[in-house]
């Protein structure tokens, strides 16, 4: 079953690099001009070396590994206002044409669906059949670059996140019996593919909510006849209660908080806790500050994220519920690129 509302896909309704940039890049400092002049020279050296290496036939893996590392190092030492001004310089440099031969990088940069982090982008990370033709048609250089980007630490963490979500779904079904689940910003819901509980019919209801009609349609098609219900909806719909979705044993939002400021994240978390049954759990995840390909993502991929630490996650948890009413945990994934928070309602 699928329910879709009509709406425009634009910057006001979906996540764009500009909306995220407003949250992560600070205002210029007094010595901005001096810092920018030095940083501009440093970025020029990084890009020119990459250009020379491409022109001289150095292996794609060596080039992208060195470049991503150099961008991360430079990003770490600069004030965010300076880094923000370097991003368009990188994107407009001729070396970007080489990196954009990677179908994953190109999809992220061009944003065919109009926003960052769409479900098709994640399918490049998963190596899903839906992107097979795009990968197959890549140039030899693009294919070599993709071999690197799909196995970068951030991509490994995303695949681990998918598998962890599958595990939480199956554990919820084992704990609650015929369980009810809500996935917020579900994308293509790839974690459902491996769910044993779904296959065995131990899930009573699984609501997959997303604001992209293409993702909603994909879930409705792929899981037609199952207990999964694809619904068109957004963070705003949840916070403002414009849809009556019911209550759930498990609610999770795994790829959404990377784009939400604390104020919105807390509002959403509070609402999700209200939608939990006694004993139910809410899980949210965020890319962490330990990520080392952030510079490459923000420049060549045009993919900006709000990175959070464990302390940042705890701040959202503690502001969203009375500590005495929940059992909470914050933990890292295996390679520390993603940090998770779980909140179980006592009862």
Mean pLDDT equals 93
* Series of H and E elements: EHHHHHHHHHHEHEHEHEHEHHEE
Classification by helices and strands: alpha/beta
The radius of gyration over CA amounts to: 21 Å
List low-confidence stretches: 1-14
Shape: globular
Main-sheet strand order equals 1-4-3-2-5-6-8-7
Total of DSSP H or I helical runs spanning 4+ residues: 16
**Ends: how far apart?**
32 Å
Total beta-strand segments: 8
How many strands, which pairing sense, and closed or not: the largest β-sheet? 8 strands, mixed
Proportion in β-strands: 15-25%
Helical proportion, percent range: 40-55%
Explain the overall architecture:
This protein is 49% helix and 16% strand. The longest helix is centred in the first third of the chain and has 24 residues, at 32-55. It has helices at residues 17-24, 32-55, 60-77, 80-91, 96-99, 103-110, 119-126, 132-136, 140-149, 153-176, 196-199, 213-222, 235-239, 262-274, 294-299, 310-320; strands at 2-3, 179-184, 203-210, 228-232, 248-253, 276-287, 326-332, 338-345. The protein contains 16 helices and 8 strands. The chain starts with a strand and ends with a strand. Helix 2 (32-55) runs antiparallel to helix 3 (60-77), helix 2 runs parallel beside helix 4 and helix 14 (262-274) crosses helix 16.
């Amino acid at each position: 079953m699928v329910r879709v509302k009509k709406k425009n896909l634009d910057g006001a309704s979906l996540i764009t690099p500009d909306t995220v940039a407003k949250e992560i890049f600070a205002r210029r400092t007094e010595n901005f001009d001096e810092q920018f002049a030095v940083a501009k020279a440093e970025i020029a050296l990084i890009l020119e070396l990459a250009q020379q290496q491409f022109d001289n036939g150095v292996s794609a893996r060596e080039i992208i590994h060195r470049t991503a590392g150099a961008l991360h190092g430079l990003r770490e030492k600069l004030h965010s206002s300076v880094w923000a001004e370097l991003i368009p310089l990188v994107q407009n440099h001729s070396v970007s044409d080489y990196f954009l031969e990677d179908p994953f990088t190109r999809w992220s940069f061009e944003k065919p669906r109009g926003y960052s982090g769409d479900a098709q982008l994640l399918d490049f990370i998963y190596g899903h059949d839906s992107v097979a033709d795009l990968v197959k048609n890549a140039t030899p250089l693009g294919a070599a670059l993709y071999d690197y980007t799909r196995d970068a630490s951030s991509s490994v963490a995303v695949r681990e996140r998918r598998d962890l979500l599958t595990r939480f779904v199956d554990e919820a079904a084992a704990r609650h019996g015929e369980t009810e689940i809500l996935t917020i910003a579900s994308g293509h819901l790839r974690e459902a593919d491996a769910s044993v509980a779904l296959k065995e019919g131990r899930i009573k209801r699984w609501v997959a909510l997303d604001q992209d009609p293409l993702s909603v349609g994909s879930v409705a098609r792929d899981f037609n006849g199952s207990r999964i219900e694809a619904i068109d909806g957004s963070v705003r719909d949840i916070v403002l209660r414009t849809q009556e979705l019911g209550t759930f044993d498990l609610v999770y939002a795994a790829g959404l908080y990377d784009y939400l400021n604390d104020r919105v994240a807390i509002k959403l978390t509070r609402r999700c806790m209200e939608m939990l049954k006694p004993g139910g759990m809410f899980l949210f995840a965020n890319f962490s500050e330990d990520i080392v390909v952030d510079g490459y993502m923000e420049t060549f991929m045009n993919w900006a994220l709000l990175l959070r630490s464990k302390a940042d996650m705890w701040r959202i948890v503690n502001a969203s519920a009375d500590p005495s009413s929940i059992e909470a945990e914050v933990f890292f994934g295996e390679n520390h690129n993603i940090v998770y928070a779980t909140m179980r309602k006592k009862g």
